[in-house]
C-alpha cells in the first residue's frame, strides 16, 4: 500500500535540477524592475523628480499636485514593462507582507477604456484591512486604516504588478505595521547621530543606519514537505527521530552545493538582481540541506524591505524547483536551526562608516564615540533588545537547545578590550597636554592597526563587533528585521542624545575642551556598561551563572521576554523619541502575545492529530503483525512458543506502553488547552500555553519517536528525518 511518504520519495528521487539560463550579465539586469533614480529621471518631469528626491533625502511631504505627475510617470514606466496592475505593498503585524492588486484598466463610458493611475492612488489607499491584527487600535480609535507611499523605498515590479512600498496606519495616525515605527526610529537615530557627528565634522547633514542581513534557510523537496502535515501547517517537524547521521561530520558546511539547490539559488539571484536586491553570497550552512544567502548592506529601511521581499520571492522561486523553503528557526530537532544575522552600522552622507576607524586621531575618537555609545545602549536596554527577537519559533534557539543564548552580551575582542581598559584610566576632569598626546598616539591612534589584523571572532555572542559593524546574531530567520532594527536604532538614538547632553554640559559648566569632555563621558560609559561585555563562551553554563550574577536578563521564553516591551522604561524611551505612543506599544505587545498563544495552540493541535491519527494506528497495525506472528509460533511450537517469540512479545509490550503514554498525554494536553483557551487576559493565556501546554510536546514526541524506531519502516507513514534531510 503506497503511503504518501513513499509516493513522495519516489517523486523526489525522480527529480533533477531545473535548468536555469543566465539572462546575460548580472550587472546589466540589476535593478531592471525598479523605479530607481535613473528611471525617475527618464520618466518624470524635472519638478516631480526633484520632489521625490527631496522627499527621500529630507522626508519632506510630496505635493498632491506633483503626485499626479509622479504617478503618471510611474505608470508609463510600468506599462512599458508589461505591467497591468498595481498594489500598495506593506508589512502588517502578521510578520508577512500584504498586497491587494488593482488594475490600471478603467472604462471611460463610451465603450472604450484607458490605463489610469492617479496621484491619489499612488499616495494613499484604503485596503479592506479589518482582518489584519491591530491590537485593538482600530476598535478604540477609527475603524479604518490606510496605506501611504514611502518614497524612500523605490517601487518595483513583480510579475505584472507594480508594487509600491507603503506604511500602514490608522486614521488617527497609529502605526499598524512594522515599517512606520522603523522609519520613526531611523529618523531619531539620524538626528541624534548627526548632532554627535558635528563634534567631529561640521559637514555631516545626515546619518543613515545600515543593515546587511544574512538569511539562513532549509530547502526540502516540496513533495516530501507536503507529505508531512506538521511541516505544512506549522513550518517545522513536531516529531521525527534523529537520523543515524546528522551534521556531526560537518561535511555539508561550505561544501559543494547540491545541484538542485544551486539551480534554485541561480534562479533566485537572477530575480533578486532584477528587483535591485544586491545579493552577493551563497553557501551551504552547518546543517544538512541548510543554506545561507546574504546581500551587500543597504540603508536599513530598504534592507528591511528587501528582506521581506526576498522571503516571499524565495518561496515563489522554490515552487519552480519543487523545493519548499523552510524559514522557521528550528525545523528539525537535534540539528542546527536558522537565524538572520543583522549586521548593523551608521554611515554619514559624507561617506563615513561611523563604526570604522579612520586615518586621523579625531576620526578614531569619532569611531570610539559611536562604538562605546552603542555598547552602552545595549547595556541599558538589553531586555528590550531581547524582546525584539522574541517569538514562539525563535524560542527554540534562544535559551533552548542551541545558540545564541537568550542572554544579550557584547563581544568586542581582546584588542579593543585593551583599548577600553586604557580609556577607563583617563583623568577625571581636564586632561593634561601630555596625557592627550599620549592617548592620541598610543591608544586612539593605534585602533586602525588593531582592527586591521583583528582576527578575533566569537561565534557564541549574541551581539558582536566584527571590525566595522556590530552583528546582532539572535534575530530569528523568519522574523521581519524591522522589529530588531526599530529597537536597536531607537536605543542608540536615545544614547547618543544623552551623550551629547552630557558632553555639552561639561563644556559649558566645567569649561572643558570638547575632546576632554568626550573622553570624560566615554570613560564613565565604559565603566557603567562593563557588565554587558563578555568575551567567553556564550553557550556555557558558567556564563549563565555569571550573567545572573551580573544582573543581566535571561528571559527564556516569549511571554517573559515580551514584558520589557511594555515597561515604563520602554514607554518613556519611545515617547521621548516619538517612535511609538503607549497605545501603539501596548497594541503590539497584545498582538505578539496573541500570536504566540495561537502558534502554540496550532502546534498542539497538529501534534495531537498526528500522534493520534498517524502514529497510534500505525503502531497498532504493526502490533497486529506481531500478534499474528506469535500466534503462528504458537501453532508450530505449542507451549514452547514463548521461547521463540520472546523478542516479539517484548516489542508488543513496549509498543503498548508507548501508545498508552501518548494517548494519556494527548488527553492531558487537550485539557490544558481548554483551560488556557478560557483565559481572557492575553498575557495570562500566553503564559498558560507556554507553561502548561507546551511541555507536553516533548513528552508526546519522545514516545512517538521511540515508536518510529520500533515499527517496520515500510509501515511508518511519516517521511523520516533522513529522507527530509538527505534526499537531494
Ligand atoms: P560573516 O558574518 O559571515 O563573517 P562578513 O563579515 O563578510 O560575514 O559580512 C557579513 C555581512 O555584513 C554582509 O552581508 C555585509 O553586507 C554586512 N556588512 C558589511 N559592512 C556593513 C556595514 N557597514 N553595515 C551593515 N552591514 C554591513
Ligand atoms: Mg554573520
What does this structure look like?
By secondary structure, this protein is α+β, with helices and mostly antiparallel strands. It folds into three domains: 31-177, Roll (Ubiquitin-like (UB roll)); 187-239 and 248-580, 2-Layer Sandwich (Creatine Kinase, Chain A, domain 2); 594-726, Four Helix Bundle (Hemerythrin (Met), subunit A) (Up-down Bundle), CATH 1.20.120. 52% of the residues lie in helices and 12% in strands. It is built from 29 helices and 17 strands. β10 and β11 (290-295) form a beta hairpin. It binds adenosine-5'-diphosphate and magnesium ion (MG). Magnesium ion binds at residues 214, 341, 471. The site of adenosine-5'-diphosphate has 16 residues, from β9 and β14.
Tell me briefly what this model is:
The protein has 728 residues and is an alpha+beta fold.
Say which molecules are bound, naming each kind only once: adenosine-5'-diphosphate, magnesium ion
Largest sheet: 9 strands, mixed
N- and C-termini, Cα separation = 25 Å
What does the average pLDDT come to? 92
What's the architecture of the largest domain, going by CATH?
A: 2-Layer Sandwich
CATH topology heading of the largest domain:
Creatine Kinase, Chain A, domain 2
Total strand segments:
17
Pfam families: Gln-synt_C (PF00120), Gln-synt_C-ter (PF18318), GSIII_N (PF12437)
Protein name: Glutamine synthetase type III
Organism: Christiangramia fulva
Family: Belongs to the glutamine synthetase family.
